[in-house]
Write a structure and sequence with these properties.
The chain is an alpha+beta fold and 712 residues long. It has 5 domains: 63 residues, Arc Repressor Mutant, subunit A; 62 residues, Nucleic acid-binding proteins (OB fold (Dihydrolipoamide Acetyltransferase, E2P)); 67 residues, Beta Barrel (OB fold (Dihydrolipoamide Acetyltransferase, E2P)), CATH 2.40.50; 287 residues, no CATH class; 83 residues, OB fold (Dihydrolipoamide Acetyltransferase, E2P). Helix content is 32%, strand content 28%. The protein contains 18 helices and 34 strands. The strands form 9 sheets. Strands 14-21-20-17-16-15-22 form a 7-stranded mixed β-sheet. Strand 15 and strand 16 form a beta hairpin. Helix 12 packs across helix 13 and helix 14 runs antiparallel to helix 16. The radius of gyration is 30 Å and the shape is globular. This is Ribonuclease R. Its EC number is 3.1.13.1. It is found in: Cytoplasm.
Length: 712
């Protein structure tokens, strides 16, 4: 009886033993071992366990995971392949290398050679076990990425540490006293990693810049920019170059352009905008049709390729719109003064001129360099009031434009354009940058009026180059493309929305898919799940990018689309202006590969700017909710991960985390496929989209983290 019990206690599952044997060989891949050595190494002591090890070794040799180097002696099959890829460091230690073919290889920390996020590395891929992820070890760091981290300094007598804000690095950074640049405990600093010695637990670094005391608004906003590698101040030399640009326009330049200064022209922008990229002109023609001019600031006239201003703009790629400020792509003298289409000033523009009939059908159009003089600057709210009341400045023109825009819009949706009309969260902010209220930015007719004419101009420019009239091959150009949604993501989206009682087609023609998405978006309007369904729908979509390879724009349902209308704040639009000028003058096609590289950089910078914008909103949300600790709110589960539930508050759209460790009534497991957490014992399920009541538990500004607790 006793003996049976002892054996039972030693019984080990075959898969557990297999995992131990794999681990044993992975720790020393160069030596060969016989089964006794392996059994000893994995702690197999009983006869049945040793027999199991013996059988496993034979099976693993058959599967090519091991090589039998001589009878009964085995070593790891390191004749795996070597690949090169980009290292992705994860704070939970689950590091990966993404190969150039987009394969993901797991790298344990002990096999990482201290590679850092973004480094290009050479990896030895271990022989793969059936049903397991690929695993490997870094054998060489081919190209190091400069490692810049932002965090808070902790200064001791002879050295200091940077406690990083970013979750990518699990270790603090050690900083010698000589590399502190005068930083004090509690300062936010930007630190560059200089080395990570083999035996050291922490990387070594030096302070690049002190941003100021942690917790101050300016410091924290600069820290967000620095964290994403975005510039937080404008180089003096570039400002100086911009200040030398004359703002007077010569008579020769005006004579060389189409003159629209006598045509009614105005701008419609957000009330706090200073950089007016676009203006609309409108006049009735003798045949009863309308002539509408979409006039875009002619930045390319002032910013020459390869100049110091151009290089800075290209590297930035875009203006960054944070919660409380704009970090401009161009120096202020250009973006807010010389190029901005301010009222009662002559301005140089690049324009699309349309002749439209009463049904808003384009009868003819042409593209030209022009000169304009805006008659008035409208804020969206002012133009909206004219549309709603039919009274006010330039009412005939605004009402005519609105009528045309509504017809363009209807036709666009009839043709399969998707109607994402998200509520953007905005903060009312006082002079010190403190959020004092939340409101939602709603897109009304005045916004949509501008949107429709910008879409029309962008599409017209793309067709002009992409569909040459003479039947010749189109020249290299910058397109804004948007791919079809990923079928798998669409299928899981369709499954997700069934719990709210909605259905959607996931197969069929482009137009069928779009119609299905549009009717779903119309049905969720005003419902509690509206924001969530829209968010998940957007996640199922591909991202729009810049490229020379035109595959069309799925979301807009356009075969040709580009960005032409915002050269003050987006570099691709400036590229488009230059290409247009070159090709209209009969110039040869530019080199496709170098244009594609520029497109890729612009897409990357756009993504970074969006991430920084989200981080700045998150920061203000944490600051806003930090004043409301203990208060209760109704919300909806907006995200589910292995570490907890994300909940979005209904009334202000602030999002926080209910950590899984705080769900104390059961042991919860994450079911990735079904977007839910399930309790092991009581089988309680928390699903994406479930309504839930929470109270605000913790607000950590440093880490931009908001924690909620469930209210039962």
């Amino acid at each position: 009886m006793k003996q049976g019990k002892r054996k039972g206690s030693k019984r080990i599952k075959k898969e557990d033993m297999l995992a131990s044997v794999v681990e044993f060989f992975n720790q020393d891949r160069k030596r060969a071992f016989n089964y006794k050595q392996v059994a000893h190494g994995v702690g197999a002591t009983t006869t049945p366990q040793k027999q199991m090890v013996f059988q496993l070794l034979e099976g693993m040799a058959e599967q090519n995971f091991l090589i039998e180097v001589s009878p009964g002696k085995y070593k790891a099959n390191s004749r795996g392949t070597e690949v090169i890829g980009r290292f992705e460091r994860r704070v939970n230690g689950k590091n990966h290398v993404i190969t150039d073919d987009d394969e993901s290889i797991f790298i344990a920390e002990r096999n990482a050679m201290h590679a850092m996020d973004g480094d290009r590395v050479r990896v030895l891929v271990y022989a793969k076990r059936r049903g397991h992820d690929a695993e490997g070890e870094v054998v060489e760091i081919v190209e190091k990425t400069p490692q810049i981290f932002v965090g808070t300094l902790e200064v001791q007598k002879h050295f200091a540490f940077l406690l990083t804000d970013n979750k990518v690095l699990a270790n603090d950074i050690f900083i010698p006293k000589t590399a502190l640049k005068g930083g004090k405990t509690g300062d936010k600093a930007v630190v560059r990693i200089t080395e990570w010695p083999d035996r050291a637990r922490n990387p070594y670094g030096e302070v690049v810049d002190i941003l100021g005391p942690a917790g101050e608004n300016n410091t924290e906003i600069h820290a967000i920019l620095a964290e994403f590698g975005l510039p937080y101040r404008y180089p003096e030399a570039v400002e100086k170059a911009a200040n030398k640009i004359p703002d007077a326009i010569t008579d020769e330049e005006i004579a060389a352009r189409e003159d629209f200064r006598q045509v009614t022209t105005f701008t419609i922008d957000p009330k706090d905008a200073k950089d007016f990229d676009d203006a609309l002109s409108i006049r009735r023609l003798s045949n009863g049709n309308w002539e509408v001019g979409v006039h875009i600031a002619d930045v390319s006239y002032y910013v020459k390729p390869g100049s110091i201003i151009d290089k800075e703009a290209e590297s930035r790629g875009t203006s960054v719109y944070l919660v409380d400020r704009v970090v401009p792509m161009l120096p202020e003298r250009l973006c807010n003064e010389i190029c901005s289409l301010r009222p009662d000033e002559d301005k140089l523009t690049f324009s699309c001129i349309f002749e439209l009939n009463g049904n808003a059908e384009v009868q003819k159009s042409h593209i030209a360099r022009t000169v304009i003089r805006s008659n008035r600057r409208f804020a969206y709210e002012e133009a909206q009031e004219v549309i709603e009341t039919g009274e006010g400045d330039y009412k005939e023109e605004i009402l005519a434009l609105n009528d045309l825009a509504q017809k363009l819009r209807k036709r666009r949706f009839d043709n399969g354009s998707i109607n994402f009309d998200r509520h953007e969260v905005k903060f009312d902010i006082d002079e010190s940058g403190k959020p004092i209220g939340v409101y939602f930015k709603v897109s009304k007719e005045a916004n949509k009026l501008i949107e429709e004419f910008m879409l029309l101009a962008n599409r017209t420019v793309a067709e002009f180059i992409g569909k040459p009239k003479d039947g010749k091959k189109p020249k290299a150009f910058v397109y804004r493309v948007h791919d079809l949604p990923d079928p798998d993501k669409m299928a899981s989206f369709a499954a997700f929305i069934t719990r709210f009682g909605y259905k959607i087609k996931t197969e069929g023609s482009k137009a069928d898919l779009s119609k299905g998405i549009n009717s779903l978006l119309a049905n969720v309007q005003g419902k509690p799940e509206e924001n969530l369904v829209e968010t998940i729908a957007i996640r199922a979509m591909a991202k729009a990018v810049y490229t020379t390879v035109n595959i069309g724009h799925y979301g807009l349902s356009f075969d040709y689309y580009t960005h032409f209308t915002s050269p003050i704040r987006r570099y691709p639009d400036l590229m488009v202006h230059r290409l247009l000028e070159r090709y209209m003058a009969g110039g040869r096609s530019v080199n496709v590969q170098s244009l594609e590289d520029e497109c890729k950089h612009a897409s990357d910078m756009e993504q970074l700017a969006a991430n920084a914008e989200r981080a700045s909103i998150k920061y203000k949300q944490v600051e806003f909710m930090g004043e409301r600790l203990g208060e209760e709110y109704d919300g909806v589960i907006s995200g589910i991960t292995e570490w907890g539930l994300y909940v979005e508050i209904n009334e202000n759209k602030c999002e926080g985390l209910v950590p899984i460790r705080d769900l104390e009534d059961d042991y919860y497991e994450f079911d990735e496929k079904n977007y839910c957490l399930m309790g092991r014992r009581k089988h309680r399920i928390y699903r994406l989209g479930d309504p839930i009541r929470i109270k605000v538990a913790r607000a950590n500004l440093e880490r931009k983290q908001l924690d909620f607790a469930l209210v039962e």
